[in-house]
Design a protein that fits this description.
six-stranded mixed beta sheet; alpha+beta; elongated
Length: about 300
């Protein structure tokens, strides 16, 4: 998996043809240097550079081909440098040994590439839900807020919390809780637009980043999302509900993205204290001019009777 600084635009890998053209050119340069300086100096270790580039950028096939090319170039340069009187058998054996070392180096570079990619993925992607992590959400949110300020566009940030999630963990265990989180994460991902971002912010809390979305549009999307949550059921067969707070900025605001997220979090807690299974929104029109929408009137949630194990 390729991970970019912004999850919206994955960094495209360089074209294999360009990589291989540069790699072949580098091998040719090293071969020429070896030919001109043998037997007094050796530039053989420099072959590792194009081999590493091919492995990191284009995969094992390109790397193995580069390793074979480099070993052959080493053999050819030394054979011509020592002249026709030199025996080719020891030089050929030397090339085979060098090829084995090059292939071992290819394996190491590929292992390192996979380890780095996994570390980046684990740091940025939540392993339970497959959603973006908190760091990615904050990073993208700062970028989207800066864009909204520059072009005077609307931006909505929503904070979502699963109701009665602690009761699920306490009664059925954390494995059941993880299944609920994974199901909710999948529903959230299916319920938003391709350019929106869903993230797990921690525990049973999720974040939604809705660019180019005003308060009315965000309200429709979030209400539709709450209706789709009926598809998710807890381990006791009861539907999963969420308390949601959302903040929309429709003009340039001096607030940071972290401040907008904190306001959405506060609105979510207001819903949780009042009724649960509800939505409260607020709009910020210009610096320091908030406008609150009243929370949805929903019946207070009854305490859940969880089924026995």
């Amino acid at each position: 998996m390729r991970v970019s600084l912004l999850d919206t635009d994955a960094i495209p890998p360089p074209r294999t043809s360009l990589v291989m053209s540069a790699v072949v050119g580098a091998v040719a340069v090293v071969c020429l240097l070896d030919r001109l300086t043998a037997p007094y100096f050796s530039f053989t270790p420099l072959y590792l550079l194009p081999i590493a580039a091919a492995a990191w950028l284009s995969g094992w096939r390109a790397a193995c081909l580069t390793a074979v090319l480099a070993a052959f170039a080493h053999f050819a340069s030394h054979l011509t440098a020592y002249g026709p009187g030199a025996g080719w058998e020891p030089l050929l054996w030397d090339a085979f040994v060098l090829l084995a070392m090059f292939l071992l180096f290819v394996w190491f570079v590929l292992w390192l590439h996979r380890a780095v990619a996994k570390a980046i993925r684990d740091a940025r992607i939540d392993t339970v839900t497959g959603l973006a992590g908190r760091g990615v959400f904050l990073e993208r949110g700062r970028w989207e807020l800066a864009r909204a300020k520059r072009y005077a566009r609307a931006l909505t940030v929503a904070y979502l919390d699963i109701d009665h999630f602690k009761a699920v963990n306490d009664e059925f265990g954390h494995e059941a809780g993880d299944r609920v989180l994974a199901g909710v994460g999948a529903l959230l991902r299916k319920s938003v637009r391709p350019f929106d971002l869903v993230a797990r912010l921690g525990g049973d809390e999720f974040g939604l980043l809705l660019p180019e979305t005003n308060e009315a549009e965000a309200g429709l999307l979030l209400k539709r999302l709450r209706a789709r949550l009926d598809e998710a059921v807890g381990p006791n067969g009861s539907p999963v509900t969420m308390s949601i707070g959302a903040v929309t900025t429709v003009e340039a605001t001096d607030d940071s993205f972290e401040a907008l997220l904190a306001k959405a979090d506060a609105l979510m807690y207001a819903v949780k204290k009042a009724t649960r299974d509800g939505l409260q929104q607020e709009s910020i029109v210009g610096p320091g001019a908030p406008r609150s929408a009243p929370p949805e009137r929903v019946a207070p949630a009854e305490p859940r009777a969880l089924a026995p194990r």
